[in-house]
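Exam revision sheet. Question 4 asks you to relate a sequence to its structure. Input first:
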Amino acid sequence: MVTVHLIFRRWVIPIALCLVSPLSGRCANFAFFEPVQPPRPFQIIVHRGESHQAPENSRPALQRCIEDGLEWAEVDVRLTQDGQHILSHNASVTDASGKEWKLNEHTLAELRQLDVGSGFAARFAGEHLLSLEEAFSLCKDRLNLYLDCKDVHPGHLADEILESGMRRQVVVYVTLDQARHISDGTDGKVATMTKWRPDCGGPEWAVTNGLAAVEIDAPELTPAIREAFGRAGIKVQVKVLDRWDRPEMWDQVVSAGADWLQTDLPEELLAHALWRRWPTRPVQISLHRGANRYAPENTLPAFAKAVRLGVDYVEFDVRATQDGAFFLLHDSRLNRTTDGTGPIDQITADAVRQLSAGVKFGRPFAEIKVPSMDEFLGTFAGQIGFYFDAKAIPPAALAEALQRYQLVDRTVVYQSPNFLAQLKVINPRIRGLAPLRKPGDLAELASNLKPYGVDAEWDILSQDLIARCHDAGVKVFSDALGDHERIEDYLQAMTWGIDVIQTDHPLRVMRAVELRMAGTRPTTTPAPPAASVKP
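Answer key, structure tokens:
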């Protein structure tokens, strides 16, 4: 770091250089599109799209960034045999049959026939390599793109960017020679970026090379470096991948003033930054079947992710096997989420333990098993609140498990009023969560059962209903699943005083929390998610 400070002592002239350089008008203060409005203090660049949940550089990986309300995706660009730009990190790809294809030996038309999704998961079967043109069409006015140029034709690339109308939504990561070529050829209309290290010099290095942004490795960013580049109108993108992709480094670079953070963990980074900025939240958050957007539902990785996201509850479902063991599974049948078939209550616990609970979600989770109730409770007791959906477990067995793991005061139990009444007889301290489908049912439910809370249908929520629940000493939980996974809906419910929002889209709810705490309203809305309902 001594070297960095010595260099900065020579950075007295760079700001003047930015003002007199013939390229300064091209690089300084490039007007990038901002997909998220009002903007966050910093922007996220997701490495190869959301590649932990979908094939990297693919349409689903980019679509997920849009749905999560993120600003940028980093994608890799290469040339085909016929000179077309295509998205791929590697110089060759493997199709569903295991055959390897070198991109520069095949035409775009040939490469588009390949199935590059099945290797990640069967649910992505038929996904093909994206051409740059297709990526631009998908992301126009919705998501900015950082083009990591592995093998490109600079002039052709610049033309594609300008012709697509994406020039404000793209930054091109290239060599210095290519950056100069693109800047000269487009009169600075296309933004370029490359790696900066302390031995490159000060901001004048970026200005004289026609750059709009620089990429800096996380450990090398300091507030002084960020300030110098900021004064020159140069964006600072910080690489926080791999060993740097952790809270301590996120805090360091955010405090230093980074403009953009490139990460593989956008959901964890944004959650961490939000709770540091606003430790007091206006609503509690429950994640449906764990963080099922980022890991297979009802699995240990989904619950571990929820803990790292800093939410209040995880919802989970419990069912019994033929021999009376309890496992986490939503459906009565194994087919949808595991590689097994048939009803879970017709096979033994040993048979369930052999199944994969993650292979259908994606290759990185293929070895993940269906967790037993004891494995789950023992792993996460004390780390997070439990929203126990008692699909198929007797009240006595449920009560015994909560008592054994000392979770009575950390758990709400969702089931029918009759089931909850039995549970209350066994242990009056267990907190029951009863379904509320009609406002008119509240009075009888509150009088007869006296539940801890109700899980109200979202469509019946109102300020009056929530107030009546609170007057009766009943908390209000509701599932914002499917049509109500909208920032506007979350904000409305918070205004009415809802206690807990359950969601499949944690970043959306967190964005609503951020806006409410900041006293602002959204001016852009993420793309609607796929429908999801809670039976």
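Marking note for examiners. The radius of gyration is 26 Å.
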